Amino acid sequence: MSDYARIADAIRFIASQVERQPTLDEIAAHVHLSPFHFQRLFSRWAGVTPKRYLQVLTLERAKTLLQESRPLLEVADTLGLSSGSRLYDHFVQLEAVTPGEYKQRGAGLVIDHGVHDTPFGQAFVALTPRGVCNFSFLDEKAPEAPLATLAQHWPAATLQEAPSRTQGIINTMFDGSKVPDRPISLHVSGTNFQISVWRALLQIPPAKVVSYAQVASAVGNPKAARAVGLAVGANPVALMIPCHRVIQQNGKLGGYHWGEIRKQAIHAWEAARYE
Fold it and tell me: Where does the record place the HTH araC/xylS-type domain (predicted)?
């Protein structure tokens, strides 16, 4: 069993028992490890102890973060790459597919792709000459799904397996010891509304959260929280466009295209590094 598989199992157990705050011994027993080995595994993965993670998971903390986040998107226009957002874990430059490119459906375009291990399980990465066009977590039941989706989206493109080229994206995202010398470029396709939502999400710092309603207000359509939810769910580039940082108004994490347990894991991982 991989480290992430054990961590996911532990997080699933912790989430189901969070109100009574299970002990280290109970959590370790659930994943069939000694308390010593489980604590070492969890701390190596998350950078925090299981006890600290339990604190991160509380509903009260999420509600506090929502209160703190209110000004974040209100000043989104001033949080561009020229300001403090450079200090966040990885700064991202989003470039939308043009109508002409969309009409060509990828004709003449070569897209490199690869599968890589991450702290949150295996991920599929696809890269055009202009930037990352897909980042998806693999589902064990349908590991070929991201490649099939890519081929459907770019039917005229040449898709080639090239993990040596996509590995650099993984290194930039997860090697905290290195500061990127240039932004990660994204090359994504979406409606004007989707693109506006995704750009707003890029303004949310790591370990912070906003609600769907707050994003709707940030894009100038306060009544469009439901449409924002659909745009968040259609995000083709996980983590880099941080849709995981959008939660329900009541403080609950809500759904996630790649699973609520993974969403909880990402929140814990970010909290360990940025709080």
Answer: 8-105
